[in-house]
Amino acid sequence: MFSPDAPSTAPASSAPPPAGGASSEVPGGRDRVLAAAFARVAEHGAAGASVRAIAGDAGVSPALVLHHFGSKDGLLAACDAHLADLLLALKSDAMARGPGLDVAAAVAAASTEVAPLGAYLARRLVEGGAAVTELVDRLVADAHGYVRTGIERGLVRPSARERERTVLLTLWSLGALALHRHAGRLLGYDPTDGPEALARWSALATEVLATGILTPAALAGGIDAEAGAHGAAEEGRR
User: Minimal CB count within 10 Å: which of 38, 78, 93, 123?
Assistant: First the structure.
């Protein structure tokens, strides 16, 4: 279900009210347009999501879309901001709970909130462009913040390469989402297919992050020494 109450940093449009009446005559009009845009971009891509088509899906006039968002680019920017704000709120809340976090419950709750937007994000990542670059930069910057909170709360292990590790994990996550159709083919479920599928995907990712893959014997020596040397070099550059 679309979450109209999630915070959004997208700027409001300064366009005049649509012809035929004020925007207040369409209850929830802005939220309906956002929900319609998420669904149409997920299905048809940004190129196939015209203002007129989105307005028709939302049951409003194209003028109302332009009133709220100014343009199609403004609408997509609002969708990107809503998505990033929602992910930031969910991740920050989870990290702030520290070691007492109920991981299974957090994964289930987050999956319910995020699942409707997963296909949108996957489509945006594949299509690319300047706006998508800005979105990825925003997601990485937000990740630095909530990972730091997780370290301070004792939920995330510190790293001598904290910044690089966060970039790597974020890009791994986004890259896997962009390849979601292959996940469906190989695993039997696509993480963009709904809350249950996303919860299974997230639970698997959590297991990998929590337990790791390499044994302690494999980690002895080279990797730890290299990380220590890298950390010392980073400190020297600051």
Answer: 93
- Please tell me the pTM assigned to this model: 0.79
SS (H, E, C) 144-188: HHHHHHHHHCCCCCCCCCHHHHHHHHHHHHHHHHHCHHHHHHHHC
CB 8 within 8 A of CB 79: no
CA–CA separation, 75 and 55 (whole Å): 11
pLDDT at residue 68 tops 50: yes
- Token pair, residue 83, equals 């998505």
Question: Do the beta carbons of residue 146 and residue 91 sit within 8 Å?
Answer: yes
Summarize pLDDT for 155-199 with one digit per residue, the tens: 999 999 999 999 999 999 999 999 999 999 999 999 999 889 999
State how far the Cα of 66 lies from the Cα of 75, in Å rounded to an integer. 8
Question: In the block, which residue shows the tokens 């100014």?
Answer: 70
* Cβ density class 165-174: b for 16+ within 10 Å, e for less: bbeeebeeeb
Query: Which residue stretches of 1-60 are H helix?
Result: 29-44, 51-58
Question: Would you call 216 helix, strand, or coil by DSSP?
Answer: helix
CB-count exposure of residue 99 (10 Å: 0-12, 13-18, 19+): exposed
Tell me the two tokens of residue 12. 């409001």
Domains and CATH numbers, the chain: 80-237 (1.10.357.10)
Give the whole-angstrom CA distance, residue 140 versus residue 175.
Answer: 13
Q: Which of 146, 48, 40, 132 shows the shortest CA–CA distance to 90?
A: 146
- The C-alpha R_g of the chain, in whole angstroms, comes to 20
